[in-house]
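Exam revision sheet. Question 4 asks you to relate a sequence to its structure. Input first:
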Amino acid sequence: MRVVKEAEERKNEILDAAERLVRQKEIPVLQRLTLAIRAVQVDDRGGDALMEQIHRPQNALMHQKIQERLHAGMNPLLTELLEEGVAEGICHTDYPAEVAEMTFLYATVAFDDHAALGGEERRRKTEAFIYNLERLLQMEQGSMIEAVLPLFSDGAP
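Answer key, structure tokens:
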């Protein structure tokens, strides 16, 4: 029960932090997008122990529920940022909510335990993520590299 309470508190902290970042209009939209997604990542504030608990096989349902709640809270924030990017002419899509959803779902599944991936697998997944995001947003190839690489701890694809 302690893990559930701790996970719920962590989820609320993440969503609050992401929303604060989205509202900081003085920061360029792609940087806010990166910062908002980065807010979801586990950090050194006790997150590793919590993630270890959540990733245990017996906690699979709890892990799924946490992901669903994070998605429900993050999708409107990411959609807002993508709509802002479209309005600024940075990216192009008629489906910002759906692109936000696909991006977040892919990122949370593919990179759920990013640190455990081997170097080559991590590099390929990172490159593929950037490539596909650029395609979804109809952006020039390579235009998302600076915005997305900071999401990954080693900073290189």
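Marking note for examiners. Residues 2-151 form a domain with the Tetracycline Repressor; domain 2 fold (CATH 1.10.357.10).
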